[in-house]
Amino acid sequence: MDGVSKIKIVNGVAGYVLEDVPHLTDYIPHLPTYPNQLQDNPAYAGVKQYFVDVDDTVAQKIVVHNNSPRGTHFRRAGPRQKVYFKSGDVRACIVTCGGLCPGLNTVIREIVCGLYHIYGVTKVLGIDGGYRGFYAKNTINLTPKVVDDIHKRGGTILGTSRGGHDTSKIVDSIQDRGINQVYIIGGDGTQKGAAVIYEEIRRRGLNVAVAGIPKTIDNDIPVIDRSFGFDTAVEEAQRAINAAHVEAGSFENGIGIVKLMGRHSGFIAMHATLASRDVDCCLIPESPFYLEGKGGLFEFIKRRLKENGHMVIVVAEGAGQDLLAKYLQSMNQQDASGNHLLQDVGLWISHKINDHFARVQKMTITLKYIDPTYMIRAVPGNASDNVYCYLLAQSAVHGAMAGYTGFTVGPVNGQHSYIPFERINERQNQVVITDRMWARLLSSTNQPSFISPRVVAESKKNQYKPPTQLLDGARCENNH
């Protein structure tokens, strides 16, 4: 994006690099500071250390050798000894954008409660209906009483939408309403929008902190360990897989097909497959497959039906789109957020399997297709995600109160950190099909890889790095 400021880089000894986030004092010097109210909070009376040290950082890479450089670090999240806002002067707002995700209401609740109960902030607005709500709809006054039990509900009490990002109108609204803390919850497109909002706020010299909370059920945001809602999605997917397994096992030559979320990344499908142990084949966007011929999907299905009498197939929504484009008249359409509209691979592959076994194999099968996508998105967060959302929200609040801006929050190797917008917007995280996690799945399902040995060899050659650098751009789960 034009005009976006570069990441603040701080270099230290032994190859130490801190990719820092902006601070309000970067463009508004001599801002006054105030003591953090946390030190007087009775809930923290027994805590030995209230505040995160100013020099605390979190390493992106945790597997090293004794002669390895210290590598890239991010600023550790948490409360600071000095804050840059008086409680009575804070007028915060929260907005949710994009698709639904388990845990959205929990994040909203904990931002409100963190501001109220820790920092004594009483003016918190909810922006109704996504980015366009800044200039097209009314706001909702949020208090601990209003948000008391919203974490038990799915969806978002603020409403959401795609698109509607008009930077000038949004910042005008922020200025007109006297808002000085903006909390933006959304996926990669939303966070790109948040980065642009921050840049415009900085250009105007406004004393406004912009904090992002990354949201994607697909778990495809880089740098952070995982995105909220992912654990719930994997857990809920088990219900659909179990139903498919029961249906398939109840009929001769029964096939259960479950389509799960994952436009460009197959993490939900992969983890749900490994967790269920009932899946015979998992198809994801990162791993190309083909239907006909030796080593193809049809041949594997026939063999598995002969061996077991039934099978379950999990397919991510973004899998096989290249095959669909050949068979269907695909139109290059996009939604309001700029996401490419995908063809329904689940329905298509169900039709192709039915047709092949009826016409070519002359074999009777019973196929059941289950698409739980919107059921999974609409549920509230499970226990794990609720705790995670609580920590994300508090990290964002602590960061904004401490004067940090233009950042997003998330765990890096288990430690919550402040990460520059640029780092999470630079690419999408994907399953590495030449890594051990995918190999574990292939071993679990005993499915073919659907890729030739030559392609595997070339991929390994292109991706090879010295052992200590494996985790620079990949999540640890893929390398255990």
Automatic annotation (TrEMBL):
Description of how the protein assembles with itself and partners = Homotetramer.
Cofactor annotation: Mg(2+)
Keywords of the record, alphabetical order, are: Allosteric enzyme, ATP-binding, Cytoplasm, Glycolysis, Kinase, Magnesium, Metal-binding, Nucleotide-binding, Transferase
User: Which top-level group of life is the source organism from?
Assistant: Eukaryota
Q: How is its activity regulated?
A: Allosterically activated by AMP.
Residues the record lists as binding Mg(2+) = D188
What does the sequence similarity comment in the record state about its family? Belongs to the phosphofructokinase type A (PFKA) family. PPi-dependent PFK group II subfamily. Atypical ATP-dependent clade 'X' sub-subfamily.
Q: Which reaction does it catalyse?
A: beta-D-fructose 6-phosphate + ATP = beta-D-fructose 1,6-bisphosphate + ADP + H(+)
Protein's organism: Populus euphratica
Q: Which residues form a coiled coil?
A: none
InterPro entries, alphabetically?
ATP_PFK (IPR022953), PFKA (IPR050929), Phosphofructokinase_dom (IPR000023), PKF_sf (IPR035966), PyroP-dep_PFK_TP0108 (IPR012004)
The name this protein goes by in its record? ATP-dependent 6-phosphofructokinase
Instruction: Tell me its EC number(s), please.
Output: 2.7.1.11
- Where do the Phosphofructokinase domain residues begin and end? 92-398
> Gene3D superfamilies from the entry?
3.40.50.450
Keyword flag tRNA processing = no
